[in-house]
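hi! just following up on the protien thing from before. the input was this:
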Amino acid sequence: MIIHVTRHGQVDQATDHPVGDPYLSEVGREQARLLGVRLEALGFSGSIHSSPYFRTVETAQIVAEVVDVDVIPAAEVREYVIREGQVDGFRGATAEDLSDRYSRVGGKVELDYPWWTSEIETHEDIEARVAPLIDTVVAGKKDVLLVGHGASVDGVHRTILKKHAPEHLDHGRNGWNCVLSSFRFEPFEVINLLVTDHLPDDLVTSNAKSREEFLRESR
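and the predicted 3d structure came back as:
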């Protein structure tokens, strides 16, 4: 079985979205569509487990429409909290909200509410919450796509690579929008690691910043 991992598409910078929960931009939606096309070419036919934020479920919905699969909200790959007050005013979608808004999310989804935390999280905390999900999907022996955020996607990478391929831990951690990593299990193989070749150069972004802007400011 194969675990594919991606970060959500670029978000809309407008202010008319829910507090702390923006929707995708037009660029983000195209990034998601192109990711779906790549996964379709790879023969992906498993389920998609997505963070319950709108930007991640919207990404998952667009991919799911291309490959014709279902989306399962998964709080384990949610955004992380790095400062006090970060989630003030945040309400978060319920399972019913998500199934009403996104057709690929089933009507009988289990999602504890609230599914987020207000506690500041470390990288170790993120790894601890994503690890059980990884174990569960591996045990299921069916291909999956995990759709998360920069930090949770990085946590999935670290959790998998620490156990199976520590030589790849220094992988750069550039969490571009709709980047793709793919890991085969039993036997383990790194198939893709943070690749963006399914995206045109002008669609490689880290949210509002282009790849060139992001790398220039990171020097």
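The chain is about 35% helix and 15% strand.
Strands lie at 2-7, 47-50, 71-73, 144-148, 180-184, 189-195, 205-206, 209-210.
cheers
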